[in-house]
Amino acid sequence: MGASTVDSTRAGRIGIVGGGIAGLTAAIALARDERFEVVVYEKAPEARGRGAALLVWSNAITALSSIGLADEVKNAAAALDVTEVRSAGGELLSSLPIGTWSERFGAPTVVIRRPVLLDILGAALPRATVKIGASLRSFTPGARGVRLCFEDGSMDDVDALIGADGLHSSVRRQLLGDEPTRAGGYDAWVGITPNRPEGLRTGVATATVGNGPRFWTAVLRDGSVFWYATLNRRGRPPIRRREELYEVFRDWPAPIAELIASTPDTELIRTQIRDRLPVDQWGAGPVTLLGDAAHPSTPDLGQGACQAIESAIVLGECVRGSAQIEGGFREYEQRRMPRTAAISRLCWMTASNSTIEGPLVCRLRDVAIRVGLESIARSSLQWILAGHAQ
Question: Which domain holds residue 322?
Answer without folding.
Answer: 12-181+275-360+366-385
